[in-house]
Write a structure and sequence with these properties.
alpha/beta; TIM Barrel; 40% helix; binds adenosine monophosphate; binds manganese (II) ion
Length: 277
């Protein structure tokens, strides 16, 4: 496994095993069709698609790297201020998909998501929307996310777009209070490395609430986050991320270099025509 950020690799792709629309096999075909030589499947808090992806990659003659994108959080104290919770997505590459710790954390996340979804649906019903579990198209392995609930709301004519569903429903205080569990970021790095993998901070420029994207404050805080994560065993930074500008790629690569981290490349592809993360 040689993680890198060259144009012929895509190390950040979601399948039907989380909120993507393609099967792992269809992703392998897509990777082949797009001239890639190496890809990973990085579903949110799940490894269900990795066996199929590995098999399909072999058939297509592509190099495959096992992957996962873990939803994490950790408290940081920036510039001497009090501790502030920061949510981060941490990618794990080259993990053993049968590692018991990985499977344990995926199971906790899966249950937490199911419980969260039940509460979301109850609150949606209380707000007067006629949406039940039957209206929601489930992906493989029963993974249901807010965008899928939003699609059900679109189908019933309550909203026109997914962002509108977030604005009117999910991003309002009542719904924001209904949370699912997240793994502590240091713990996620420990689990990934313990499963034989390399932990990589996903889309660093999209980290919220650490300053305006691209500002000096944001880069200072990001560097602090990276310093602490690297000291806990993180091995890489997703510098070459689809929505990063050239300037952002340059700056994050410089951060990676300063900390001896690998730079990786990822598109965050969720299927043709799907915009999600
Ligand atoms: P969940 O994993 O079920 O909590 O849903 C979170 C997902 O919703 C994120 O990963 C995004 O893909 C999507 N999302 C979050 N905010 C928005 C938004 N404002 N508009 C569209 N999609 C969003
Ligand atoms: Mn996603
Ligand atoms: Mn992703
Ligand atoms: Mn992400």
């Amino acid at each position: 496994m040689f993680l890198r950020d060259d144009p012929d690799v895509d190390l950040h792709i979601h399948s039907k095993y989380s909120d993507g629309t393609l099967s792992p096999r269809e992703i392998a075909a897509w990777a082949k069709g797009n001239g890639l030589s190496m890809f990973s499947v990085t579903d949110h808090d799940g490894v269900g698609g990795l066996a199929e992806a590995a098999q399909a990659a072999e058939e297509f003659g592509l190099e495959f790297v096992t992957g996962i994108e873990m939803s994490t959080e950790h408290g940081f104290s920036f510039g001497g201020s009090g501790s502030k919770m920061v949510e981060m997505h941490i990618l794990g590459y080259g993990i053993d998909p049968e590692n018991v710790e990985i499977l344990r954390v995926c199971d906790i996340m899966r249950r937490s998501r199911l419980e969260r979804n039940e509460k979301l649906l109850a609150a949606i019903a209380e707000e007067g929307y006629d949406i039940t579990a039957e209206d929601i198209p489930a992906a493989n392995a029963g993974y249901i996310s807010k965008p899928q609930i939003a699609r059900a709301m679109i189908a019933k004519g309550y909203v026109k777009t997914i962002p509108e569903a977030f604005e009117k429903v999910f991003d309002t205080p009542r719904f924001e209070a209904i949370k699912k569990e997240k793994t502590d970021a240091f713990e996620a790095i420990r689990i990934i490395t313990g499963a034989g993998g390399t932990a990589v901070l996903a889309h660093p420029m999209r980290i919220k609430h650490i300053g305006k994207r691209g500002s000096e404050e944001m880069y200072t805080n990001l560097e602090q986050i990276v310093t602490e994560l690297a000291s806990h065993g993180m091995g890489g930074l997703e510098c070459c991320y689809a929505s990063h500008t050239e300037e952002e790629k340059r700056c994050t690569r410089a951060i990676a270099e300063r900390h001896g981290l690998i730079s990786t490349r990822g598109s965050d592809f969720h299927g043709p025509g799907v915009t999600a993360d």
